Amino acid sequence: MMETPEQNRNVFAIKKFLSEYLDLRKDKDNELETVDSIRKGVEFKGANLWILIFAIFMASLGLNVNSTAVIIGAMLISPLMGPIMGVGLSVGLNDFELMKRSLKSFLITTLFSVTTATIFFLVSPVAEGQSELLARTSPTIYDVFIALMGGLAGVVALSTKEKGNVIPGVAIATALMPPLCTAGYGLATGNLVYFLGAFYLYFINSVFISLATFAGVRVMHFQRKEFVDKKREKKVRQYIILIAVLTMCPAVYLTVGIIQSTFYESAANRFVAEQLSFENTQVLDKKIHYHGSKDNEIRVVLIGQEVPEASIAIARSKMKDYKLGETKLIVLQGMNNEAVDISSIRAMVMEDFYKNSEERLVEQTKKITVLEQSLARYKSFDELGKTIVPELKVLYPSVKTVSISHAIELTIDSVRTDTITLAVLKFGKHPDAHEKQKITEWIKARTGAKQLRLIAEEFNTKWNEAKVYTDCCLQPLHVDGTGGRRYVDAGKPE
Q1: What CATH number labels 381-488?
Q2: pLDDT value at residue 476
Q3: Of the chain's two ends, which shows fewer C-beta atoms within 10 Å, N or C?
């Protein structure tokens, strides 16, 4: 089927759009400068090494006190990215000398980092692993993707004219330092599980950052190193390929294991949430043990009303739907089995208490905020009255007293409510309509009120009755016994 001219135009437009916005070569910096900047970051002598040691101490302190901010600060000043990106660059450029230097620096930085962290945790008073430490002992598929995307972002940023602050961001996102510190903690406490898990995470991150750097170098068509001696070039290339394969094979194998473990745990969690959810019964604890193709186990502890064995059997029969057919399901119930951990119960109770307390606190905070706003609104009128008194004294000398307040006006027929500002002014003599209008407009402008009701009182100690002024006549209101007459602007609110 032949393409129409219109289809060709559309394809051309799409290609042009992608080329215009996604072409990396347009912003590409001088290739030699980019390579030189990465080469400089490979060297780890003198200042760079001391900066790394201090950064490791900082990160260890952050892990010790469970402070995320301190850990991020340590990652910002850490120069760990240099050798790792140098390995990827050397493979992309076919530069065996750079590879040797990068691998040597990588081993030195790793050794110094783990040793520094081990020394710190040997003398540190920390007794138990904090949450920030524990989070660095088990790599997931997300860590792989983060390292890959971070490495790509780093090499693209280094190769452009406006480099920005991408490398520190990559260092934070890929989190190379915390696993090294956790590995040191594992050695210091004799916990090989922590050490191996953390080092495993560090190795995976490093490999995929290098892989991303290699991919970026090849995509942007960096010029490879040329050899006069073709035999030597072939030999060097073989060495590079061999080292790359030896490095990548364990990483690929481990990554496949991470992917399988991630999918398995996701399916197991979904199974427990959907099939072991019973009325008046709660999952107290669950442990998922994944060992590959066999000997997998899900251990669940239930608390509350005992679940019949038939219901559990039905749940077991549905495990195949979650691709958990080869998994052994163990369900423990009641308080008389050894699987019930008192600390787990205490933690669950405290969690519920905390959540409920937090919700109540949020509700109370909202109520207090509303009340404070209402109080502030009413107080504002008191403060406003005091503020405008000097101005009134100058502009309208006949005004003797002033009172400004907030009021709600109800319409009887429609049950409608309006918010109005009420101003009560006592005059030495009753103002005429023009003066009242001027005062009304001035107070509206001064208070910012949308609607204003002005009440005028005439101050005269000889009179014993107060009268209401309307636009056309005087009407008796009441005798207040205060020696004053009251006149009210009975017109519509402004």
Answers
A1: 3.30.300
A2: 37
A3: N
Q: Angle at the Cα of 280 (from 276 to 283), degrees rounded to 5?
A: 40
Please state the domain extents for the chain. 24-225, 274-333, 381-488
Strand partners, 407: 420
Collapse the DSSP code of 465 into the 3-class scheme (helix H, G, I; strand E, B; otherwise coil) and give the result: coil
| Exposed e or buried b per residue across 243-282, where buried means at least 16 C-beta atoms within 10 angstroms of its C-beta | bbeebeeebeebbeebeebbebeebbeebbeebbebeebe
Measuring CA to CA, which residue among 112, 57, 114, 48 is closest to residue 81? 48
Distance between CA atoms of residues 183 and 192, nearest Å: 9
Q: Nearest-CA neighbor of 203 among 227, 235, 176, 226?
A: 176
Cβ 283 vs Cβ 329: under 8 Å: no
- Tokens in use for 424? 């009560």
Query: What's the CATH class of domain 24-225?
Result: mainly alpha
Low-confidence ranges of the chain (pLDDT < 70): 1-7, 19-29, 125-140, 161-168, 171, 226-230, 233, 247, 334-356, 378, 381-382, 385, 414-415, 459-494
Asked if residue 452 lies in contact with residue 440, where contact means CB atoms within 8 angstroms, the answer is yes
Q: What are phi and psi of 333, to 5 degrees?
A: -130, 160
Distance CA 290, CA 373 (A): 56
* Strands (DSSP E) found in 229-274: none
Model confidence over 239-268: pLDDT tens digits? 777 777 776 777 777 777 778 888 888 888
CA dihedral 127, 129, 131, 136 (to 10 degrees): 150
Phi (first) and psi of residue 284, to 5 degrees: -80, -40
Which residue type, as a one-letter code, is found at position 34? Answer: T
